[in-house]
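Q: Got a minute? One more chain.
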Amino acid sequence: MKSRVPVYTRPTVDLNRPIRSAKVRTEFPMMPPRVDGSKLTVRIPPKGLVVMEVELE
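A: Always. Here it is, folded:
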């Protein structure tokens, strides 16, 4: 996920299928994404990029 704004963002993405696991594969953020059913929320740094690995059920 990528951010083009100069502030931290916390987007929520709905993948329309239940999420089994989600892991961050970049150095930031240290905290794992928050998973709620088919939705995940992750913190993205200003004008930054976060790579995640998501496993669906």
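A: DSSP finds no helices and five strands in the chain.
Q: Perfect, thanks.
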